[in-house]
Amino acid sequence: MSQETEHVQCLIIGSGPAGYTAAIYAARADLKPVMYTGMQPGGQLTQTTEVDNFPGYPGGITGPEMMEDFRKQAERFGTDVRFGYVSSVDFSSLPHKVVVDEIKTITADTVIISTGATAKWLGLPSEQQYNGFGVSACAVCDGFFFKGQDVAIVGAGDTAAEEATYLAKLCRKVYMLVRRDEFRASKAMVHRVLNTPNIEVIYNTEAKEILGNGKNVTGIRALNNQTGVETDIPVEGFFVAIGHKPNTDIFQGWLDMDETGYLKTVPGSTKTNIEGVFACGDVQDHYYRQAITAAGSGCMAALDAERYLAAKEDHVNVLS
To answer: Looking at the structure, do residues 137 and 108 belong to the same domain, yes or no?
Structure first.
């Protein structure tokens, strides 16, 4: 059975703020972008309830509604948004080859990667039950909703330490659960945590269960893994800060990555080590990880792709 093949000027892999913004700019530049959304159209934001920190929404908006707005705007300018996932890539020659849903081959002059990252979770059933209703994987996104309240955070690295100190500025009390008897974070970050009076670090402890009333989080059940003693701690919010995994498995062996799998881009641009392949959003940003910064890098990727194609065209015109 022969595979179906299609050629496009600009292929966008993944949706979310980065992908949709890239699509808006690419479509307006007449690159006729085709986007494959991935299995979670809209990305991580579709798992977020209220978004209050994105400019232009003075009354706030839910993550799914916001991503729907982004999608409509991208389609308004002619983006061909398709539900499907990229199963493999071949960046060995131009045009680039991408296989969708394991059956269809797309050849593309430019590829914009915006596959994002996935928060690592503890794997508790109650974690997913209360996700968006007291459980969060982003203190900067959701900390504001717990102003003056008691919260808990789990994690021991730099991100967890940073998010704990961020929450401490907003919340009355922050319980920090560290699984071992020490942090993994840098000394400077540990010092900052230990010198923040309303952070209580609980060592050798992990979250066994998130407690709730069916609607919202009301507490956590913490287990001391040395004594085996369980303690219920009343909190309104529970933050998971054990890291993110960039969605880059299919690009292994093709694109340069850091030790945790984030795509490397040329500083000040979205260019990868492969000509005509650009990366934007959380797939290449493990530092800021915000909707607004993802959208900004999506704009950069579309502009980089447009300029790349224009330069190639100029080169062809000079040769002819």
So the answer is: no
